[in-house]
Specification:
- This protein has 5 helices and 2 strands.
- By secondary structure, the protein is mostly helical.
- The chain has a two-stranded antiparallel ribbon with strand order 1-2.
- β1 and β2 form a beta hairpin.
Length: about 120
């Protein structure tokens, strides 16, 4: 799996890392049960802070895409490309809403008001 980060981008590094994992799942390069490299390995190879990688892994955990366990590391939990693509679209929706000054709660209310 290739990790992509652009330090000059306005997108935070942790989100770029999370997007790399999402993209690998969508492309079929990562499947359920596959172990991701340790945060220390990724940080060293990309010359980023280990906590940045851990934050990316936590985001992926919160999205239900990765299981994090002490001693076991990060393991792909959900590899349905449709689900991962949906998560990416939700992230983009929230980013667009934030630029418009809308909170996630306000976006949720908009979604719930739809038929």
């Amino acid at each position: 799996m290739l990790w992509h980060v652009d330090p000059s981008s306005s997108v935070p590094l942790f989100e770029q890392l999370a997007s790399s994992v999402r993209r690998a799942i969508i492309d079929g390069d990562l499947r359920s049960g596959e172990r991701l490299p340790s945060a220390k390995e990724v940080a060293g190879s990309l010359d980023v802070n280990m906590h940045t990688v851990l934050r990316a892994y936590q985001v992926l955990r919160d999205e239900g895409l990765v299981d994090l366990r002490r001693g076991r590391g990060a393991v792909v939990a959900h590899s349905d490309p449709g689900f991962v693509a949906l998560v990416e679209r939700v992230d983009q929706l929230l980013a667009d809403a934030a630029r418009l000054g809308l909170s996630p709660k306000e976006v949720s209310a908009l979604i719930e008001a739809r038929p």
